[in-house]
Write a structure and sequence with these properties.
single chain
Length: about 45
C-alpha cells in the first residue's frame, strides 16, 4: 500500500512540475512577444 501511495505522489508531482514548466514557457513567450511589439519602430503608411 505504501508503495502505491508513493507512486501516486510521484505522478502527481511530475504532472504538477510539467504543468508549471509549460505555464512558465507560455508566459515567457507572451512576454517576449510583447517586448518585440513595443520595440518595433512605428512607420507611417503612405497612401
Amino acid at each position: 500500500m505504501k508503495r502505491m501511495k508513493r507512486k501516486l505522489w510521484i505522478r502527481i508531482g511530475a504532472v504538477l512540475l510539467a504543468g508549471l514548466l509549460l505555464w512558465w514557457l507560455f508566459w515567457a513567450i507572451l512576454i517576449d512577444e510583447d517586448e518585440n511589439v513595443q520595440n518595433l519602430p512605428e512607420t507611417e503608411q503612405i497612401e
